[in-house]
Amino acid sequence: MNKRKIIKINEEKCNGCGLCIPNCPEGALQIIDGKARLISDLFCDGLGACIGHCPEGAITIVEREAGEYEEKKVMANIVKQGKNVIKAHLKHLNDHNETRYLNQALAYLKEEGIENPLADESKGKPVLPCGCPGTKVVDFRKEGAAKKPESSPRQESELRQWPVQTMLVPAHAPYLDGADLLIAADCVPFAYAGFHNQLLKDKILLVGCPKLDDIGIYAQKLREIFKGRDIKSVTYAHMEVPCCFGLVETIKSAISDSGKAIPFKEAIISIKGERIK
Asked: How many CB atoms lie within 10 A of CB 161?
């Protein structure tokens, strides 16, 4: 059995609301005994479509030994659920650029004589509009084709410490004492032009990916930092895409566990690089 990425559900955090269920067209999740359960490794593709829909931050992606995902078995389960579920699954694969699985799914439909619900019959080609903001391919170049003149001198970096990766920053680092902490999803500095002078200035930085990294490790690290160091405030800067919201509850829980009243706020950045909160 090989290691691969797969979702993990924190039973203590899960309240059984079921918001994750409609966002798992593969049918890997069910509510059993009041909790969301992963019922089959074979059905979970590890792409985390359910993560952004969990209000409790109970779902994360981990890497562990798991049975290999099997598209044909998933499709056999999906076609029983009707056209809309087939459509949602195909869009899900397309949005995450899973071309191999998508081709297997389309081949299954063809073998079984089932119509592709996203097919453009006039051209005979599948039309798969992207719907997942986290992996949707968007080209902004046409909107800003004209080169903008430089209007200000070169900006200086506001970075005040090293390392910056959450996994690497020691919980006992002396620069954490008395710090205003900025936790940034790792797409934010690339997307937001004002990152240094509007978000990072006078703050200590922790960077990571709420979707691809192990949030369990983040939770433990943040608890250690909040308990052991005098943190003045915490700002979480993240993108507007659903998978980025999973870390909000993790940070709030770590603050609560510390027993300290540490002020917390969010800065949300759009995929076009605009600050929307």
From this structure: 15
Q: Kindly report the number of other CB atoms within 10 A of residue 252's CB atom.
A: 15
Would you kindly state where each structural domain of the chain is located, as residue ranges? 3-126, 174-269
Contact (Cβ atoms closer than 8 angstroms) between residue 51 and residue 244:
no
CATH 1.10.3720.10 fits 3-126, yes or no: no
Q: What is the Cα–Cα distance from 266 to 277, expressed in whole angstroms?
A: 7
Distance between CA 85 and CA 23 in Å, rounded? 10
- By DSSP bridging, strand 180-185 and strand 119-120 are unpaired
Tell me the torsion sign for CA atoms 21, 26, 27, 31. Answer: negative
Helix or strand (DSSP H, E) at 234: strand 233-239
Query: Tell me, what's the pLDDT at 181?
Result: 97
What fold is seen in the domain 174-269? Dna Topoisomerase Vi A Subunit; Chain: A, domain 2 (3.40.1360)
Annotate 20-51 with DSSP letters as a single string: TGGG-TT--EEEETTEEEE--GGG--SS-TTG
* Residue ranges for the chain with pLDDT beneath 50: 121-131
Sign of the C-alpha dihedral computed for residues 57, 62, 66 and 69 taken in this order: positive
CA distances from 175 to 12, 199, 229 (A): 33, 18, 9
Q: Which two tokens stand for residue 89?
A: 């699954």
pLDDT tens string 215-267: 888 888 999 999 999 999 999 999 988 778 878 888 998 999 999 999 999 99
